What we know:
With 179 residues, the protein is of the alpha+beta class. Helix content is 47%, strand content 20%.
Amino acid sequence: MIQNEQIEIPLSKKKMILSLLGSIVFVALGLWLIINPPKIDEPIIGNPTVIFIAGLASIIFFGLIIVIAIRKLSDQKSGLIINKQGITDNSSGVSAGFIPWSDIQEIKVSQVLSQKFLMFIVRNPQEYLDNVRNPLKRKAMEMNYKSHGSPISISANSLQTNFDNLYRLLKEKMKEYKS
């Protein structure tokens, strides 16, 4: 093995543009629900308060995705760097940064609806949370920790690779570098 071997997986501008366009549609839908709510003859989903909350939630959630996508589109750094020291994650708005192999105990697959992502079970999850200064990023990482057992997750959504290849590569490199 070459001592300085490093694998860099670039960010996928195409995937990020698709995410940006989809998010714009959902923000527009949220605005429509607030400005001109539909008249629905259902007691729950037709309730004006429920419609307003759904519209507002859509605007806030997808608005955040728009901001993150725009920031990532101008990012020239690789989305993921893998080397013998560890992994440097720059793949999303809640990227963990550098994660040494010595911290990683396990890489698990998690799924929410049809979205798969990798959870990095680390020895010291609280340290990763303590190092986050951005309150929104910290909250998202805390929710990951409570729901999935780790604050650190990586998706292939913004990377120039697919989920299965990413998972296979990371498992292979973890085995190689930790042995």
